[in-house]
Design goal:
Blueprint (H helix, E strand, L loop, with lengths): L39 E3 L2 E3 L19 E4 L2 E4 L6 E3 L2 E3 L20 E3 L2 E3 L7 E3 L2 E3 L19 E4 L2 E4 L6 E4 L16 E4 L21 E3 L2 E3 L12 E4 L2 E11 L3 E6 L9 H7 L4 E7 L31 E2 L2 E2 L5 E6 L1
Antiparallel strand pairs: 1-2, 3-4, 5-6, 7-8, 9-10, 11-12, 13-14, 15-16, 17-18, 18-19, 19-23, 20-23, 21-22
Length: 335
Amino acid sequence: MMKRAPGFLGFLLVAIGCATPQDVMDIPEGGSAGCGAGSQLCGQTCTALARDPENCGTCGAKCKANEVCTMGRCALACGTGTLRCLNLCVDAASDPGNCGNCGVKCKAGEVCSMGKCAPSCAGETSACGASCVNTQVDRTNCGMCGAMCGAGEECVLGKCQLVCQSGLTKCPNNYGDAGVSDAGTIGPNVCVDTWIDRYNCGTCGTVCPNAKPICRFGQCTLPIGPCNNKKCDQGSDVTDANLKWTVCNADCNTAWVSMLSNGGGKYHAEYICKQLGYNKLGAHGGTCGNVCGYCQSNTSCSATGSMNFDNGGTSCGSDQYGQILCYTVMWQCTL
């Protein structure tokens, strides 16, 4: 039985089950090489360790039910507009026990209105017990007093709606067990990472077939391995989804990769090589602005030019993802 949950806004919303579906796929055992950028292989599943509550920071590190995984660490999950006071999430704008700040208590007969203790509610707020709330946006009183939104939902115009954290996309729940064993725990929509989600690969509803069961870089592919790369395969840099690269040529031992975005950029070439299943960065150099060719016009992955590497492009240094090449560059990946 697969368990997932909806996403959350920012790093504060409760995220019970926004992780990529834990379906069993034909993925070889190994490291993160078989997964898309920002994800890692845990057992037989590609998952984003920075936000997966089942594998938070490392494979198998599970957050508690009231926690979310943010930046690879389990933390108390507070909704948008709420404040963490000790081990509770409170709305300081309306909580009579934490009015305006943690520990500020209103007197008997007072209500907490817009973060201040007062004899009555002000503005667009209305009294729900001793709290003054705006039922159009309050997650615990959405539309009316006592109507609480579910995990991962926000109150929008008085109605609870699923809101996804940055980097995830809201898609209809199209998983195989949707509405059966998971009934009541997910709902009609889910937050997914279309970069690595087999059931929403690239766009909502695009399901990878058994013949190509892996979603990698938003495209359905075979399990990763250097022998599975082919000419004109494309991907994006790990830190910039708009920075595109392409495979000029590849075999089981090496790959020739080139910048694809107009004007180039800062490519994490070493990391890209590992994503493709190779062990290290080989020869590299500039292209004079061309794709898959050294200072030649009208070249492309389907009409390659000279594979001449002048050792340029290293002026941008390196970071946690390894060597960076910039800007209009091409490189080799080797075993």
